[in-house]
Design goal:
Shape: rod-shaped
Oligomer: single chain
Distance between the termini: 143 Å
Number of helices: 2
Largest sheet: none
Structural class: mainly alpha
Number of strands: 0
Helix content: over 70%
Order of helices and strands: HH
Amino acid sequence: VQQQIQERRQNRAAQSRLASARLAEKSIAELGVMFTKMSTLISQQGEVLERIEDDVEAAGLDIDAGHDELVKVYGMTKGNRGLILKVFGILIFLIVFMKLY
């Protein structure tokens, strides 16, 4: 009888260890899935960051090109100011001359 009680205790202890081992195995499998998902998310974020970096670089190049164009336009209008003043002066002269004539 004592031997049967001893065997039952050992059997229960073995079953308890087996249940604990299975629980640990399940937890480890869940951790593996979580790490896989985390790896995927990090990879996707890396791709998004690369696209953002490319867009920022392209925007910087567009800003530089826009600045160059504005400098060109400013130079063209500055160079034409004399011509614009001459044409405006001739128009005023003609208007005054037509009123007097």
